[in-house]
Amino acid sequence: MSDELALLERIARALERLTPGPAKPPNWQAAEGFAWVAAEHALQPLNSIARVPLALLKGIDRQRDQLLTNTRRFANGQPANNALLWGARGTGKSALVKAVHAAVAADARTPLKIVEIHREDIATLGQLLTVLATAPVRTILFCDDLSFDANDAAYRPLKTVLEGGIAGRPENVVFYATSNRRHLMPREMIENERSTAIHPDEAIEEKISLSDRFGLWLGFHNVGQTDYLAIVRGYAAHFGLKIAETDLERRALEWSVTRGSRSGRVAWQFIEDLAGELGLPAEALASADQRLAVARDK
User: Fold this and answer.
1) CB count, 10 Å around CB of 118?
2) Rounded distance, CA 124 to CA 76, Å?
3) CA 20 to 30 Å from 131, out of 143, 178, 188, 248?
4) CB of 21 closer than 8 Å to CB of 190
């Protein structure tokens, strides 16, 4: 019997390791933002948040104003929508979310935090919301580059917590996501469902309805030449780059031709290259993690 009891105890300890207990709330005063570490069932404070000042985001004025208004309402305890920022790569989607958080958090009545959950951890969203629901702060729950592929069932817990569950979304949480896909699934997947299903509309309704759970849809597109040059000039002025405006614009356009596109990311990459040529130290551009803020919006 003693051997059997010892075996049962070892099994129990193994199960405890595999099934962590309830997540403990963090010290909410420790940071402005937190990252959900699903493997540890914990929120990790972020020493710095990769973002740019809101004033440097050019060519997305309508999107900026709508997200700013929605976030201010949320921070002030008023009704606010979940938001889906979709569109072309490198156009400032994730940069806008983080910049808006910084702008609103500066004068919010209640502390406003931002918590990032990775797309691959969406299945643990329920556990995370349990922690956030009892927090003494209001939280922007942020998922960057959200999308789902064929036979991917991970969208179901997200769909439930956004609107459909009995408990619903906690009052002190709003969900913001960025995606390259308007409906969070590839077009060929939608067409395939329509062509093979007995009832095509019903076959795709469950997955399409996920994007409908976001009350605010903000579309992002590659910028035109005027906005692209405005972004370049804004960066150059902000970082004090000493170069004639005509040369700056000429070289910025040449850079965009070599990249085959014009976007906020391309503008930043040009500025980074120019700053290096002018001999600026890396700290001059990376002091607020601006490089990472743009590079991660993919």
Assistant:
1) 15
2) 28
3) 178
4) no
d(CA 25, CA 113): 13
According to the CATH classification, is domain 28-220 in 3.40.50.300?
yes
- Contact indicator for 214, 66 with CB cutoff of 8 Å: no
Bridge partners of 45, per DSSP, are 34
Segments of the chain scoring below 50 in pLDDT: 164, 188-199, 203, 287-298
CB 137 within 8 A of CB 172: yes
What is the rounded CA–CA span in Å between residue 211 and residue 83? Answer: 9
> What are the extents of the domains in the chain?
28-220, 225-295
Which tens digit of pLDDT belongs to each residue from 144-189? 988 776 566 666 667 766 764 555 678 999 999 998 876 665 554 4
**Sign (positive or negative) of CA dihedral 257, 258, 261, 267:** negative
Tell me, yes or no, if the pTM score tops 0.85.
Answer: no
